[in-house]
Each structure stands twice: as C-alpha cells, then as structure tokens.
Amino acid sequence: MQIDLTGRVILVTGASRGIGRTIASHLHAAGATVAVHYHRSSEAADSLVSELGPNAAAFAADLAGSESCAGLFGAVLQEFGHLDVLINNAGVAHLIAEDAPVKEWSELWAHTMNVNARATALLCRLAVRHFSERSGGRIINVASRAAFRGDTAEYAAYAASKGAVVALTRSIARAYGKQGVAAFVIAPGFVRTDMAQDSIDAYGEQFVLDNLALNQLTEPQDVAPIVTLLASGLADHATGATIDINAGSYVH
To answer: Which of 102, 114, 123, 242 has an alpha carbon 20 to 30 Å from 182's alpha carbon atom?
Structure first.
C-alpha cells in the first residue's frame, strides 16, 4: 500500500529526537509538509529540517506554558497557512522518588501534567477549532501502555498524565467526529529513545525485556508506520481507538 501525504501539513511535537524524529521523517517521505517542534534541541531540529529538505520547518516552544502552546500553533499556521494533522508526541517522564519532599513532588507532578496533558489538550482544542472550519482533520496523540497498566510508584505522574491523554482523545472522537475530526491514541511501551534510557538505567534493560512478549525492545521505526497510516485518512473508522505498539507488554 502506497501512502501519499502530498499537500498535507502536519505538526509533530517533540520531533527533534526519538519517536517524534522518526515519525517526522516517515511523514515527510510520504510527501507531507512537516512542522518540526522542539523545546531545547535546536541543533537536532535544524539538522532534521536540513535532512528532510523542502517542505519542513522547525518551531521552538516550551509546552509547559499555555501561551507557548498557542504561539506554536499560530506560528505553524502563519508559516504554512493551514494544518491537516496534529501529532502530540512530546512528553516528559520524571522519576519522582516516593520520599521526595512535598515541594519537589508537587513541582514535578505539575510539570508532568502541564507538558503531557495540558499542552496536549490545548493543542487539540486549537486543532479542533481549525479543523472544524475546514473539511476536518486528524489528531494522533501518543500516550503510553502506562495509561492502562499503570507504572512504578516513581512514574505514577507519568502514568496519570497519559491516562488523561487517552480520555481526552476518546472525548474528541465522540464529540467532533461529525465535524470531520478523527482522533487516535498510540500507546508505546519502552521504546529505545533518550527518554526511555533513564528508566533503562534505573531498572536495567533485562527488567524491560522481561516485560515484553517479544525478544527485542521496540524501536522508533516500529511506531512511525502506524502513525503515517492514521495521518493518511485511510483508517478514520478507527477513530477513538488505541493502538498498542509495545511488543505485547500491555498483555504480557
């Protein structure tokens, strides 16, 4: 099956590295114009845009701030004129010790929820309004297996934030489907990225592998093809669905 995204403008948050970078590359290879969001990794974002060539541009924003989220969305529209697909991939996963002081605990919980849940919700809100004025559009939110099976105590904030993303996505699918908006959840587990490396370092790679049904850790390139399919519109009747891409770890 050949997927052609020519003419589609797609915003990928957290696209300078990890899963987001590979998703952006796959989308661009299929013909899409890609807005590459990044926070601090300007060199990585610029190198990706240079690698992709025409029909790609980098956009900086700290998603912990509401105004930054709105500014990001506005900047993409100003650059490309419209948006067809929003992919909320950016996220943080703070390891929060069970005995952390209340101030530290509260600050890390708040930052996790702001980046993972609030920013996703705000960008979805802006996208839904934009899509409703056009012929519709698609939202793909990257959650986690942790939204369904929970996580360790140290990553409870991460699991809670991703659970919010799942509920948000289903609500969008239910509320805006007749306006042409389709919304999907991707639920990876451990994926070999810089963000996951903290957990691998903390618990050991064997601990991670023991929780998989397969013999290999999921790679970013295992996630990107499904996202490309969902972005194409060929799977709109799966709106509201969650697609697990985590080597069977959710059911293991």
So the answer is: 114
